[in-house]
Amino acid sequence: MTAMGPFGDYPHTRPRRNRQTDWSRRMVRENRLTVDDLIWPIFVQPGKSQRTAIPSLPGVDRLTIDLAVEEAQRAESLGIPVLALFPATPSELKTPDCEEAVNPENLVCEAVRAIKKLGLNLGILCDVALDPYSSHGQDGLVRDGYVVNDETVEMLCRQSLVQAQAGCDIIAPSDMMDGRIGEIRKALDHKGYQHVQIMSYAAKYASAFYGPFRDAVGSSGNLGGGDKKTYQMDPANTDEAIREVALDIQEGADMVMVKPGMPYLDIVRRVKETFHQPTYVYQVSGEYAMLHAAAGNGWLDLNKVMLESLTAFKRAGADGILTYFAPVAAEMLKSG
Ligand code: PBG
Q1: 281 close to ligand 1 (CB < 6 Angstrom)
Q2: β-strand partners of 204
Q3: ipTM
Q4: What band does 138 get if pLDDT is binned at 50, 70 and 90?
Q5: Domain of residue 327, residue span
Q6: To the nearest whole number, what is the mean pLDDT of the chain?
Q7: Are 40 and 75 contacting, i.e. CB atoms less than 8 angstroms apart?
Q8: Which of 17, 23, 235, 270 has a 20 to 30 Å separation from 11 between CA atoms?
Q9: According to the model, what pLDDT value does residue 1 have?
């Protein structure tokens, strides 16, 4: 006689049947992480042949351009499709009006040129925002204590242009000013950079998970107790993310991003299901630091939580992940 259980004609329906063996689990697996999903963010500093540890980002160093070039070669040989560059600008070059951001010879532009010279099968992504160049740590120009929108957008257009000129493939505005995607697209097209892609940080939240990144680019001290709540999104909101992404797509974004990652998987899912656009997610510095810290205490298995978290982004609908784990994950995927 068949007993009726919580699954209907139990025990005939047994979901565990498909999970019995490794081959069967592989056969029914719905999502797969591959090296093509990885975007690797690195930090560039001035000087030569020097790496400087970032204590709050274990295993991630600031690199001089010559070493960044070596990492670019490593990225290509691992099959990582894109490298994202962030500058650790010397504090004497940081000013309230952020002029260094539009200097065609700034660190990021020089790094792009040095990497692009190699002709690798590797995309270069440059972040567009003023915080690595500002003496106040904000992503835009500050007037009477407020981050002004339209004047900042003009600077972001100029910043995008020097990066495109240096050979950057993907412009990634992370500033959250209104209307910047449309203006940057126009500026690029006007100067003949129609082929340069835009990945918009479209739904970027005013998150406390960016702390170690701000240490890495040296903006945390400058920001002091300040925050970015007048331009980055309120972590309590979800419809607003849909409106932000809609605007950026309408303004010409080729790809959109949700940031941070792990606490915002619901946003990734909603954005993917609503727009069906190439959708990326940033596993930010604080998420990376958190997993490392727990693993360092022996509380979590780092490799396992790394692969689990990256797979979870895929399951949520992401087409790719910006993650400081990229090289380690790529090595692991390579060796199976
Ligand atoms: C710059 C920018 C930030 C991050 C990426 N681009 C910091 C911020 O917005 O304060 C954070 C990335 C990370 O935490 O890993 N606007």
Answers
A1: no
A2: 259
A3: 0.98
A4: very high
A5: 32-334
A6: 96
A7: yes
A8: 23
A9: 47
174 lines ligand 1 (CB under 6 A): yes
What's 195's domain CATH number? 3.20.20.70
Specify if 154 maps to a domain. Answer: yes
CA–CA distance, 247 with 243 (Å, rounded to integer): 6
With tokens 């925050």, the residue in question is 227
Q: What distance in angstroms lies between residue 335's CA and the mean position of ligand 1's atoms?
A: 31
List of E strands, the chain: 38-44, 51-53, 61-63, 82-87, 123-128, 142-143, 146-147, 170-173, 197-204, 255-259, 279-283, 320-323
Ligand 1 lined by 133 (C-beta under 6 Å): no
The proportion of the chain whose per-residue pLDDT surpasses 70, expressed as a percent, equals 97
Count of domains forming the chain: 1
Examine the residue annotation and report whether 48 is marked as an active-site residue of this protein: no
Atom index in ligand 1 nearest the CA of residue 228 equals 10
Count of beta carbons in the 10 Å neighbourhood of residue 229: 11
**Per-residue pLDDT reduced to its tens digit, 248-282:** 999 999 999 999 999 999 999 999 999 999 999 99
pTM to 2 decimals? 0.96
Task: Give residue 209's pLDDT.
Answer: 97
Cα Rg, the chain, nearest whole Å:
21
Q: What are phi and psi of 160, to 5 degrees?
A: -60, -40
Q: Is residue 329 part of a domain?
A: yes
